[in-house]
Amino acid sequence: MSYFRGFPYVLDYRVQGKRHEAQDITRRVAFDHADKNNPDVYLLYHVRDGESAHSIADKIYDDEQLYWIILMFNDIMDPVAEWPMSASVLEMYINRKYDNAEALHHYESIATGSRVGENHPHRDRRRVSNREYEYEENEKRRKIKIPLPTYVASLVEQKRRLIKQ
Which residues of 120-130 are buried (b: 16+ CB within 10 A; e: fewer)? Predict the structure, then answer.
C-alpha cells in the first residue's frame, strides 16, 4: 500500500532464525484542519454509484495510489464502513440489518428536519422508514472534499514530515 511507504521500521525480530523487520503502522497522521477547511485547496465532489477512492484518485490525479489522500482529507479511517455503498450493496445491507426495511425508524419534523417523537403534532412530522434512513445516511457519505491536484504534492510532503517525527 502506498500509504505506508515511508513509515519507519521499529521492530527487529527473528522467526526460525530468519531476521524480520516490522513497519510502525500505528503512527497516526492527519492533515491540518485549516487546510481541510480552506475552499481554495479542495473541490466538493459527489461520489457516484460504484466509485471508489482508488478510481477517483486515478481520475483526478492520474494515480490511483493517491487514494489515501482522499480518505485522509475526509477523515475516513474505515473505507468499508465510511465510504458510500453502491445501490446494490446498500440494498443487501438493509435487508440483512432489518427484518422489515419499511418499518418505522423514526419521525422527523417537516419544518426543521430534526428528529421528533411520536407525540409531535401529526401535521409537522414525517415518518422515516429503516430503508429511507439508510439511504439518507449513505447519501451524506457521498459528499466529499477532493484536494486539488495542485495541492497534492504539499499533502504528500506533509504526510512524509509527520511520519518522520
Answer: beeeebeebbb
- pLDDT tens digits along 118-159: 999 999 999 999 999 999 999 999 999 999 999 888 888 877
The residues that bridge with 115 in the sheet, in sequence order, are 108
Label residue 3 by pLDDT band (50, 70, 90). Answer: low
Note every long-range contact of 156-160, with CB atoms under 8 Å and residues 24 or more positions apart, other chains counting: 156/66, 156/69, 158/31, 158/32, 158/35, 159/6, 159/29, 159/31, 159/72, 160/6
Residues 6 or more apart whose CB falls under 8 angstroms from that of 104 comprise 127, 128, 129, 130
